[in-house]
Design a protein that fits this description.
Largest sheet: 7 strands, mixed
Number of domains: 2
Radius of gyration: 22 Å
Distance between the termini: 37 Å
Shape: globular
CATH superfamily of the largest domain: Type I PLP-dependent aspartate aminotransferase-like (Major domain)
Structural class: alpha/beta
Bound molecules: pyridoxal-5'-phosphate
Strand order of the largest sheet: 4-10-9-8-7-5-6
CATH class of the largest domain: Alpha Beta
Number of strands: 15
Helix content: 25-40%
Length: 442
């Protein structure tokens, strides 16, 4: 591609979640990938410290997945899932139901995390309505949570910047609990922080305010990922679960980031032991090879909706043209088989102590005000520059890229979440590069 073509193409693509003008002055391009590495168009290798966008859990361009996709697209490129089916979809659903928490064994397919969030919210309302409790339509989300960009997910989400432009057109009937991030009490915690279980009691306050009879569901990320790796304080999830049970409110976990090994088990249930009623997933479901998401639903919730409809009538008026797309399913089946064969979730758990020690070794580096971790995910929080929040984090990301390391940043928080195939020496390289970069910026 010559430079004129590149300039034209740069202008044409309105990039998502990107400072377009800034990026286009100095583009960062990735053109190939294999295993733990990306390659830039000029042949530079970049170690993937964040699994793409928290999604390439098995590493890049894995042969089994590539082959499954190639074969499937040549055999059955598309088949509708509305009033028709194809065998792979049922296989993928069963494979997922085998690793979701016990009882969450009904699977609805979507194409993204955002669609999964909106689907989960609709299922919650449909469930209460099917049981004759149609007043339950309100949702409780949480500050500093991310549930994608569609109107439902955005409304229950708690990111001011995402909400600002659309403030007057949010889903009605949504309230938010406070987030659990507490630097004063919990800075430099390893694993789940000790303080903050009582923050869950804010849910009781909101229930008292709105009355349980109006509330359909509470939705949270069990560990908030994209707002900066915020781990649930010890006892917090248990308290939320019991308050929801007490008031007949469904609990939805958004596991788009926490699913598929990131926390050292299949889902957050395996790490924290708390079971939701509905769970969303996407990203690593098929190693991000083809867009795909899913919602796992407790059987009672599913049955209540299905059995309320007259025989022969559609039970839930919802679905996407590409729900259970055959090529996405082929990628998912190959991915789930690979996770199993290589025991990648267990690998994440067994690498976690090494990963924890490596990230916490950054304590004391200039401007580092917190470090937190669990499984194969870590957040490193930098003090914001006076009047320039986010600048230090952005500079760190750009400098790391210059040194051949890809990381994610949220404001001044650096997030590290490598593919689960990461090697010991690569963990060392990730954190020594970050330490060097962070120490070098003002
Ligand atoms: C927890 C969570 N939910 C939902 C989403 C949205 O997923 P998508 O970008 O696939 O729509 C994300 C994306 O990062 C996420 O982290």
């Amino acid at each position: 591609m010559d430079m004129t073509d590149l300039q034209q193409d740069l202008a044409s693509f309105w990039m998502p979640y990107t400072a377009n003008r800034q990026f286009k002055q100095a583009p960062r391009l990735l053109s190939e990938a294999k295993g733990m590495f990306y390659k830039t168009p000029d042949g530079r290798e970049v170690l993937d410290g964040c699994a793409g966008l928290w999604c390439v859990a098995a590493g890049h361009c894995r042969e089994e997945i590539v082959k499954a996709v190639q074969e499937q697209v040549a055999r059955l490129d598309f088949a509708p899932s509305f009033q028709m089916g194809h065998p792979l979809a049922f296989e993928t659903a069963s494979r997922l139901a085998a690793i979701t928490p016990p009882g969450l064994n009904r699977i609805f397919f979507t194409n993204s995390g955002s669609e999964s969030a909106d689907t989960a919210l609709k299922i919650a309302i449909a469930y209460h309505r099917a049981r004759g409790d149609s007043g339950r339509t309100r949702f409780i989300g949480r500050e500093r949570s991310y549930h994608g960009v569609n109107f439902g997910g955005m409304s229950v989400g708690g990111i001011p910047g995402n909400r600002k432009t659309f403030g007057n057109v949010m889903l009605p009937g949504v309230d938010h609990m406070p987030h659990t991030h507490d630097l004063k009490r919990n800075a430099f915690s390893k694993g789940q922080p000790a303080h903050g279980a009582e923050i869950a009691d804010e849910l009781e306050r909101l229930v008292a305010l709105h009355d349980a009879s109006n509330i359909a569901a509470v939705i949270i990320e069990p560990m908030a990922g994209s707002t900066g790796v915020l781990l649930p304080p010890k006892g917090y999830l248990e308290r939320l679960r019991s308050i929801c049970d007490k008031h007949g409110i469904l609990l939805i976990f958004d596991e788009v980031i926490t699913g598929f090994g990131r926390l050292g088990g299949a889902f957050s249930y395996d790490a924290f032991g708390v079971k939701p009623d509905i769970m969303t997933m996407a990203k690593a479901i098929n190693n991000a090879t083809i867009p795909m998401g899913a919602v796992a639903i407790k059987q009672e919730v599913h049955d209540a909706i299905i059995n309320a409809a007259p025989e022969g009538g559609m039970e839930f008026m919802h679905g996407y043209t590409y729900s259970a797309h055959p090529v996405a399913c082929a990628a998912a089946n190959a991915t789930l088989a690979l996770y199993e064969r290589e025991q990648l979730f267990q690998r994440a758990a067994s690498l976690a102590p090494k990963f924890e020690a490596a990230v916490h070794a950054l304590k004391g580096v200039k401007n580092v005000i917190d470090i937190r971790n669990f499984g194969l995910v870590a957040g490193i929080e930098l003090a914001p520059r006076e009047g320039q929040a986010g600048k230090r984090g952005y500079e760190a990301m750009v400098k790391c890229f210059g040194k051949g390391l890809l990381i994610r940043t949220t404001g001044d928080i650096l997030a590290v979440s490598p593919p689960l195939i990461v090697e010991d020496a690569q963990i060392d390289r990730i954190f020594s590069t970050i330490a060097e970069v962070v120490a070098s910026i003002d």
